[in-house]
Amino acid sequence: MNAREQQTTLEQAARKRIKDSHALDGDIGRLAHFYRGWASSYELDVGRDGYCGPMIVAELAGAVQTAYLASERTAIAILDAGCGTGLVGVELERLGFRLIDGIDLSQEMAEKARQTRVYRHVQGDVDLNGPLSDHASASYDITICCGVFTLGHIGPDALRELARVTRPNGFIIVSTRKSYAEATSFENEVRRLQDAGVLETVQCLNDAKYIAEEGAHYWVFKVPDSACAETEQHL
Length: 235
Ligand SMILES: C[S@@+](CC[C@H](N)C(=O)[O-])C[C@H]1O[C@@H](n2cnc3c(N)ncnc32)[C@H](O)[C@@H]1O
Known about the structure:
44% of the residues lie in helices and 24% in strands. The chain is an alpha/beta fold and 235 residues long. The chain folds into 2 domains: 3-11 and 17-48, no CATH class; 50-234, 3-Layer(aba) Sandwich (Rossmann fold), CATH 3.40.50. Residues 28, 31, 35, 53-54, 82-84, 87-88, 104-106, 109, 126-129, 146-148, 153-154 line the site of S-adenosylmethionine.
């Protein structure tokens, strides 16, 4: 096999692993098992497929801080929800953010994120589909969730908990693969949460670059002043 054929084989294998990850039906046992096996080669695989989500969400966090927040980047508390191996944290650190916490379902992915040393704290075995019971309301200035609102992973209703842990007047930045947004009617959930006063849409980059096979939408939400009371009432 020559170098070019070898490269093509590796790219095909990477695409297959990415595709397989979308068929896990949100089953946390299967997801944890799958990512346990993928943790060591995840970055190589998504790199081969041109994954640029982490760079885009980090740049959006930089723009949000510059445009809206009074504190310096070093003092902005960020939650990287579904941090994986830490690709988002590394981009955030490059842009001057320092108070970054990571959570993820997979202990092995979380351990990789820990090894980057850009996070203040990383916790594995956290399911974003349920209540984030170790996290007080209004803990973060910015919450980011990149590559997790994707088929077979978490449902759109996980947005509500991300809003709860974000402080009033703080921001949530998420990516949604195009196919995911369509299949789950993500926009309907956004509308429901907007109507309930849980969040407001500030910006959406529609059909932007994400990974070779398809684009994503990147959403920036603001948590309104009154959101804490609304979210607690709901719970
Ligand atoms: C495609 S990776 C994205 C990782 C990282 N954010 C990035 O952009 O590289 C998806 C991550 O979501 C995590 N994940 C999947 N389902 C989850 C759930 N229900 N709760 C928390 N994390 C979950 C996986 O363990 C994996 O690390």
